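Okay, any thoughts on this one?
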Amino acid sequence: MHKVGLKTLKNKLSEYVRLAAAGDTVVITDRDRIVAEIVPPQPRTGLTPFEEKGVGEGWLTPARIRDGSPPPSKPVPGLTLERLMSDLARDREDR
């Protein structure tokens, strides 16, 4: 980890960006107070930062199908479109 003041960072930005690209973390200070960090690039997961946080904390599980196709269907035995529509019409009769 490297610590650098804001003024020095301004003058040697490309050097510190190269360090971060190589895997080092650069902590940026302003009057001895930490104000930012330049961190190594993370692999792209296709998730939003909120989703990445949820996966990292364990309360969110990412989808297993990544190509955008719908999940495989699990048909209910004996349920046809005709039966579903008649049940829907029956349920709506009392409205």
The mean pLDDT is 89. The beta strands are 2-5, 26-30, 33-38. The first helix runs from residue 6 to 11.
